[in-house]
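FW: tagging you since you asked about this chain on Friday. Here's the raw sequence from the shared folder, copied in full. Didn't touch anything.
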Amino acid sequence: MNFRGFLPSSFNEWEGRVAAVVFTGGCNWRCAYCHGARLVTEFATLPEIAPEKITATLRQKRDWLDGIVITGGEPTLQPDLIEFIRELRALPLPVKLSTNGSQPAVVAKLLAEKLPTCLSFDYKAPPDERLARLAGIAAAEVAAVRESYDLARHAAPENAPEIEFHTTLCPRYVNREILAAMARELTCPRALWILQQYENDVEMLDAKTAGTDRYPREELDALAAVARREHANVLLRYGK
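HL: got it, structure written out here
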């Protein structure tokens, strides 16, 4: 496992839970507003953290934690991911995996083994040419993302008790029309769809392309209303 960051506890990464967070290095997408830019393009400059150190810390703190979140970068690119999650579940600790959905074979295996307590997708755009442009990927890769979404939609609740989709409301990429299209695509009634404010004052991969505009609070409310016309389980985070 290529771990380049670790938070022993966080209140922000898993709704309603105190969770440790581990960050993997490397990603196959290039999203302009990515807030983990160093984990995407400069992860080799960050100190590597041994998995054994992480599991030892979690073993000490497990009575104070509600789970652990694995994020990145893109965790499903890591060849040892499934084995690492098996070790976490044996502690035992609930596990939330955050992914862009680009590796459906990994998603399928995780679900088949009932490993994730929560499977969370970074839902940036409708899975079509708009996602390809945003993430800098080919059409074939968009098809893989759609396959991962389908796996989540049809997963039995006992295989992944929680399903999440996260959308950052960056005006350059998401407006009412696009969000309505995303809502129609979602078709996973039990999923929690989290809409979050675009933070324009943090380090990101390409701030010039992403832009500095942010939606005002009233437009965030309007966007959430658009999402709720098609999907009942929507959480809006206003940010700072």
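FW: The first helix runs from residue 37 to 41.
HL: agreed, and The domain at 3-237 is CATH 3.20.20.70 (TIM Barrel).
FW: great, closing this out.
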